[in-house]
Amino acid sequence: MLKIAASTCALCLALGGLSGGMATLRAETMTPDAIAQTPITDNIEQKLQGRWQFEQDGETVTLIFAPENQVFFLLPDREDSTIAVQMTYQIDASREPMHLDLIANPDEIALTVFDITEDGQLHLNLKVTPGDERPEELLASDVMMTRVSESTAIPEDIPIVNLDTPANEAPPIPIQFITILLQGQQAYYLENGSFAEEVSDLGFATVLETEDYYYEMKRDRDGTSRVTIAAMPKTSDSISYAGAIFAIETNGERGAIAGICQSEEPSPSPPVPQISAQNDREIQCPSGASLIQ
Questions:
Q1: Residues 35-87: pLDDT tens digits?
Q2: DSSP-derived secondary structure letter, 137
Q3: Which of 57, 131, 179, 204 has its CA 20 to 30 A from that of 18?
């Protein structure tokens, strides 16, 4: 499983983009005039385009800078599978170090800095999250990425998740949030034989509270049976959600199944999924809730 350490925050912005208001657009964000396509900016954008990688704890982290100011973070989905989280970016090549805005949506923008070294490596601060001040300088501890390909294409077998998709075209934010954490737990279990106790153990750095919901992740005592992830609304007129992932064994091979339930009416109590008493491969929701995944 690809695990991205919390210190890099490569997934901070991706999960922040699902957060429904963790940060607000700040005055420092670049204006259209500031990002006018000057020759120096054009040159830097050409140098950025392609597939960049660096090693983190023995794993490979990949970013793809593509035309039309698109950037993709390749992140773990499930075992031997990957998703491409799509965002946009803006640069100001007139600054020292150069400014880079990573934009999940208009309310979720991470302000960072970068440079392209004389030997063609991308020196980039990936510790920032939306709402942070832009760093004033690059440090030796910031990641150094190597461009491994000039290709900007996403392989056809990798699904693309666009964090700025209109709400009526995408699942509700709690479902997206719970889904990513369940997928992370599934991959963690298949690799380690137990579920992760903390979100940070999955390599995800995020805040388990948004403008509209509180989130809570709980596992069984030794982490070998199940994990539940609940989304509890902050208002009385919102529905609640809960996801669960269960360890199973088939012909001596360990595996996991997961599902998400949503309350059919507004409720402060998350409808926690359960395994069917008749079929340990079937997930059921409590009364007053329906299975959505």
A1: 333 445 668 888 999 999 988 767 778 899 999 889 998 876 545 567 788 88
A2: S
A3: 57
Which has the closest alpha carbon to 87: 126, 120, 57?
A: 126
d(CA 6, CA 109): 18
Q: Tell me if the pTM is above 0.90.
A: no
DSSP H helices, 78-221, are 173-192
CA distance 161 to 154: 12
Instruction: State which fold the 12-162 domain adopts.
Output: Lipocalin (2.40.128)
CB-CB contact of 181 with 189 (8 Å): no
Q: Are 61 and 10 in contact (CB under 8 A)?
A: yes
Distance of alpha carbon 141 from alpha carbon 127, whole angstroms = 10
241-250 and 226-233 as β-strands: parallel, antiparallel, unpaired?
A: antiparallel
Tokens of 261: 């339930």
CA 211-217-220 angle, 5° bins:
165
How far apart CA 66 and CA 152 sit, in angstroms, is 5
Strands (E), 117-225: 122-124, 143-149, 160-162, 213-219
**Which helix (H) or strand (E) segment is 122 a member of?**
strand 122-124
- Of 15, 22, 23, the C-alpha closest to 199 is 15
Mind listing the pLDDT tens digit for each residue in 132-141? 899 999 999 9
